[in-house]
Design a protein that fits this description.
The complex is a heterodimer.
Chain A (H helix, E strand, L loop, with lengths): L8 H10 L4 H19 L2 E4 L1 H16 L11 E5 L26 H8 L3 E6 L33 H8 L5 E6 L5 H7 L2 E4 L19 E6 L2 H11 L18 H8 L7 E5 L13 H16 L3 E5 L7 H16 L20 H12 L2 H14 L5 H22 L4 E5 L15 H5 L6 H6 L3 E9 L2 E8 L5 H19 L20
Parallel strand pairs in A: 2-3, 2-4, 7-8, 7-9
Antiparallel strand pairs in A: 1-3, 4-6, 5-6, 5-10, 9-11, 10-11
Chain B lengths: L8 H7 E12 L38 H13 L3 E2 L6 E4 L9 E4 L6 E10 L2 E14 L3 E5 L11 E5 L6 E7 L9 H19 L11 E11 L9 E6 L2 H20 L7 E6 L4 E7 L9 E2 L10 H9 L5 H12 L3 H9 L3 H9 L4 H9 L1 H9 L10 H12 L5 H12 L5 H8 L8 H13 L1 H8 L6 H11 L6 H14 L1
Helix pairs in contact in B: 3-4, 8-9, 8-11, 9-10, 11-12, 12-13, 14-16, 16-17
The chains are: A alpha/beta, B alpha+beta.
Chain lengths: 511, 500
């Protein structure tokens, strides 16, 4: 049954409904693979096989009893460890939360639980989602299934490695500046950052409140749409949650897969790898991107170049806004109520215990950003840094608005390069930050953006990014599905099937 | 507590002009907390009224309490403020165990209400207090320092935190600096807080129980040499938690700062603690080394944009405000504005009104609250409203006097019993045996004994010196230990000495 671990979640769902597979079989297959592979891959921080099998048995029993079950019932999944899960250790990749078992579920975790999905475990991540390679995890290195010497992307690198490596059918990641899209791109997955406010943030351990968004990381565009629909919707517990109906996304993906893009206006963003802005972009990445654009054109899309000058300022603006909010969001980790407490031996006062706890509990990148953010917010510097960055954010939003007056979607490479080698950028934060260059504008503007594979460069996956106006997530899915279908048809199989040592899924289980 | 040199207040004013300012925190009486659904009931077991949100657990998010926003706007309207059409919460970042998130959700440069005013009256003169802003924030938890002798952190073995209070909606009302109050500065400060409290009570937005910390004042005081164009350096006396203390804190700071300035030193800008027992203040944290709160707009909450129609609806729904109510009551009670001002400054308007509502005459009600009860409050060092006697009990006491069941002197003894927790006045009169003696055999005997025991006086009365009868009345009162009714005794004596 090893093909279970390469099958799409949609197909697993169909097989479970048809009675061809049980949830215990599916869950067991993934747990076996985790047991065999995760020591090397490092995708998970926490796996509870017993709890997963118990949940799977419950779904199977309900199905056997003839109970009406939702489409996701019995399908296993993995959650990035930034998602708060009741009774299940949640660390956000940090030592400061080691051993913390939350007393509540994040809204999206509760939704997935209610939908009957089976939690395999919590995936590794850069500490507090700060990073682009998962090397900032306080616990372990995660390897790219395509090349174990390379990064799986970040910060949702545990999720990307798990799904690409067959250690979970799909996973929830979070994206603050690209942390869903970039790891999806470098591991050959589909990753979507929803419109800000369309998926509840309640129970996501905050990095940057005005940017954080949770979304799907999957093997296919349809899977992403299905998982996205399952977690979307208004949540009164999140004041920034948009009060609008759950978007219809799977339908958009199915429609896109039929390959008709007639009349769709596609804007290629010059500032993201275009003429005069190609420095730092690998030729192979640009070549795959241009081929993908040509494919879209072949399906009837009208393609034009669009200029968004403020995008050049996205990186500095992001690295002021996100650390500023983080410096405040991470203030609660003081050793008083939960998690790590260092130095409370009766000889030290409160300030010393708080300082020691934070000194030992946070890693270097987290400290760097807290200091950067605290500085940017301090009296006398606020206007020059945080204030200016917010103005840039407004300009970027206006660039998007102007562009969307002319085109339906904006496209770019997801990342300027393919997965870089582990360790190659850890000592160079600026080079590390540059990995987010293409994903930051959509984050700052709060608009939806998807990354879908568009081939290999030097044997490693390249991601194609499609961005849409706020609440236009369906457009992302339509374009991504069209591209995926056209490419799969051209090569005769999915890109992920080229991942060495992985069996191809049975053709007859595809729906 | 304090080794400060103090200058007499009269002398202070020969050389200096005070400027005062007040920041008042009011806990709103909403059912639930500011950003979560937890109860706000006072006095529950520690940490039983908490949830992931008010404990600041990782991942939790705030959702603003609409009732609290509405109450804040109503307070702003009652104070004549401009209501913002766009207002935001901001994070005030600092580390302390009683703030669970490492920041307090407050408002900074975009408060809900700005630019109002409140007129207060002291000794017949009206002072206009300009209100700078009214904003909404969340209260902190409470630290309990265990093991020391003072309850303060110094000397304590360990500290406990109770987060029941964390997240209770708190409205902060900030005045502009108030110049020109001169010798009346302490009284103006007190009158302001008194009037503000009356308004909050009338609005029904808070229980405003100062002893439970529903209303807490920070009092700013500075002195400048008479005639100086610049204001002096101010101190901020924190957590002054009774009306009386507000007045005392200002007075103490004026006297202390004058001594500092007289000595040629400068006043240090700092926060100071007020000590109820001595009425003095002592230095706290110096503002000159104060933390940078790194305020920024709260990204987890959306801006508040009160629409004009909604605000006008709230304005139309405001109750009769205390000033207007006092005007009406003065008329109903037939008293002058000055007499009403006495009631206000004593914090007695509602008490008198409630006493009248419970059946007493306005004159009697005023007489009791401003006389005997004010004396008791003063002796006990508390505010009038904190005495352990209700307006209904006072009305009952007055009723017993009018009915002749007891006289004024006995009524004071009955009040002793009520204050001692012995029950309602009638019950105390019963249990202490305080009722006035009727024309009983005992009283007749006492009257006759008085005549026999003072033959000279009796003779004078019989001879027409009627006023001499007072001595005989006194004698009867003495033997009956005040239980006799003086008028009855006088009549009985007259029957025996004059009419016969």
């Amino acid at each position: 049954m090893s093909d279970i671990t390469t099958t799409s979640a949609a197909d697993l769902s169909a097989a479970l409904h048809a009675g061809d597979l049980t949830s215990v079989e599916v869950t067991g297959a993934y747990l076996d693979r985790i047991a065999a592979e995760d020591g090397e891959l490092g995708a998970y921080l926490h796996v509870d096989a017993e709890a997963a099998l118990t949940a799977a048995e419950a779904v199977d029993a309900a199905r056997a009893a003839g109970r009406e079950l939702g489409p996701l019932a019995g399908v296993p999944m993995a959650l990035k460890d930034v998602v708060v899960t009741e009774g299940v250790p949640t660390t956000s990749g940090s030592k400061i939360l080691e051993g913390w078992r939350p007393p509540y579920d994040a809204t999206l975790a509760a939704k997935l639980k209610a939908a009957g999905t089976v939690l395999l475990g919590k995936t590794n991540m850069d500490e507090f989602a700060m990073g682009s390679s998962t090397e900032n995890s306080a616990y372990r290195i995660t390897r790219n299934p395509w090349d174990h010497s390379r990064i799986p992307g970040g910060s949702s690198g545990g999720s990307s490695a798990a799904v690409a490596g067959g250690l979970a059918p799909w996973s929830i990641g979070t994206d603050t500046g690209g942390s869903i899209r970039q790891p999806a791109a470098v591991t050959g997955l589909v990753g979507h950052k929803p419109t800000y406010g369309s998926v509840s943030r309640y129970g996501l351990i905050a990095f940057s409140s005005s940017l954080d968004q949770a979304g799907p990381m999957t093997r296919t565009v349809l899977d992403a749409a299905l998982l996205h629909e399952a977690i979307a919707g208004h949540d009164p517990y999140d004041s920034t949650s948009i009060d609008s109906p759950v978007p219809v996304l799977a339908e958009a993906a199915r429609r896109g897969a039929r390959g008709d893009l007639a009349g769709l206006k596609v804007g290629v963003v010059r500032e993201l790898g275009g003429e005069g802005h190609a420095e730092g972009y690998e030729p192979g990445v640009l070549a795959r991107f241009q081929e993908a654009v040509a494919l879209l054109e072949g399906m009837g899309a009208e393609v034009r170049e669009v200029s968004c000058p403020a995008f050049d300022l996205a990186l500095p603006a992001y690295y002021l806004i996100a650390p500023s909010e983080a410096s405040s969001n991470l203030a609660r980790f003081d050793g008083v109520r939960y998690g790590l407490r260092v130095g409370d031996d009766g000889s030290r006062d409160l300030d010393e215990v708080m300082a020691l706890t934070r000194e030992q509990g946070f890693g270097p990148e987290v400290k760097r950003r807290i200091i950067l953010g605290a500085y940017a917010l301090s009296a006398g510097y606020y206007d020059a840094y945080y204030g200016q960055a917010q103005k840039v954010r407004t300009l970027i939003t206006r660039n998007f608005a102007a562009a969307y007056a002319d085109v339906d979607v904006l496209v770019s490479p997801t990342m300027p390069t393919v997965a870089f080698p582990l360790g190659s950028r850890v000592d160079d934060p600026i080079a590390m930050y540059a990995a987010d260059l293409c994903t930051l504008p959509a984050s700052l503007a709060g608009v939806p953006a998807i990354s879908v594979p568009c081939g290999l460069s030097e044997g490693l996956p390249v991601g194609f990014q499609a961005m849409a106006p706020a609440l236009g997530d369906d457009r992302c899915y339509r374009v991504a599905a069209a591209l995926e279908a056209a490419q799969d048809a051209a090569r005769g199989h999915r890109l992920l099937d080229e991942l060495g040592g992985r069996p191809r899924p049975k053709e007859n289980t595809r729906s | 507590m304090s080794t400060d040199t103090l200058v007499d207040l009269d002398e202070v004013l020969t050389r200096y002009e005070p400027v005062i300012g007040l920041e008042t925190h009011v806990e709103l009486g909403t059912e639930s907390k500011m950003f979560c659904g937890c109860s706000t009931t006072f006095g529950a077991e520690p940490n039983t009224q908490t949830c992931p949100v008010c404990l600041g657990l990782p991942g939790s998010l705030p959702a603003a309490n609409a009732a609290a926003i509405e109450s804040t706007i109503r307070i702003g309207l009652a104070l004549g403020c401009r209501i913002a059409t766009w207002s935001r919460f901001a994070r005030k970042n600092y580390f302390y165990p009683d703030i669970p998130k490492g920041f307090q959700t407050s408002q900074y440069d975009e408060p809900l209400c700005t630019a109002g005013h409140l007129d207060v009256e002291v000794d017949g003169e009206t002072y206009r207090v300009e209100i700078e802003r009214v904003h909404l924030e969340e209260d902190t938890g409470k630290n309990l320092h265990v093991g020391g002798s003072t309850g303060r952190i110094h000397g304590a073995d360990h500290s406990l935190v109770d987060y029941n209070r964390a997240g209770i909606p708190l409205v902060e009302i900030v005045t502009c600096p108030i110049p020109g109050t001169g010798a009346k500065a302490p009284e103006v400060a007190r009158a302001y807080v008194t009037e503000l409290r009356e308004i909050l009570l009338a609005l029904g937005v808070s229980e405003v129980r100062m002893e439970q910390g529903n209303l807490r004042c920070d009092v700013n005081t500075s002195l400048a040499p008479v005639g100086s164009l610049d204001w002096g350096t101010r101190t901020e006396t924190k957590n002054v938690n009774s009306l009386r203390s507000v007045e005392r804190a200002v007075r103490f700071e004026m006297r202390r700062q004058a001594a500092v300035l007289d000595a040629g030193e400068r006043v240090v800008q700092e926060t100071r603690h007020f000590h109820e027992d001595t009425g003095s203040t002592s230095a706290g944290r110096s503002k000159e080394e104060a933390t940078d709160y790194r305020y920024f707009p709260e990204p987890d909450l959306v801006p508040i944009a009160p629409d004009e129609e909604g605000v006008e609806k709230l304005r139309a729904g405001l109750p009769e405000l205390p000033a207007a109510r006092r005007g009406r009551l003065s008329q109903e009670w037939g008293i002058s504005a000055t007499e009403m001002a006495w009631l206000v400054n004593a914090g007695a308007v509602e008490l008198v009104s409630d006493t009248v509502a419970a059946g007493a005459s306005p004159t009697d009600a005023r007489k009791w609250w401003l006389g005997e009860l004010a004396r008791r409050a003063n002796d006990a060092g508390t505010d009038l409203g904190e005495l352990a006697v209700t307006p209904a009990q006072v009305a009952e006491l007055i009723g017993l006097v009018s009915a002749g069941t007891i006289n004024d002197q006995l009524a004071r003894q009955a009040l002793d019993g009520v204050l001692a927790g012995e029950g309602d006045p009638a019950a105390v009169v019963e249990s202490r045996g305080l009722a006035v003696m009727g024309e009983s055999d005992e009283l007749v005997a006492a009257v006759e004994a008085a005549i026999e025991g003072n033959p000279d006086v009796a003779e004078k009365v019989r001879g027409g010196k009627v006023q001499a009868i007072g001595a005989l009345v006194g004698a009867v009162m003495k033997t009956t230990r005040g239980k006799a009714d003086a008028a009855t005794v006088k009549r009985m004596l007259e029957e025996r000495l004059i009419d016969s």
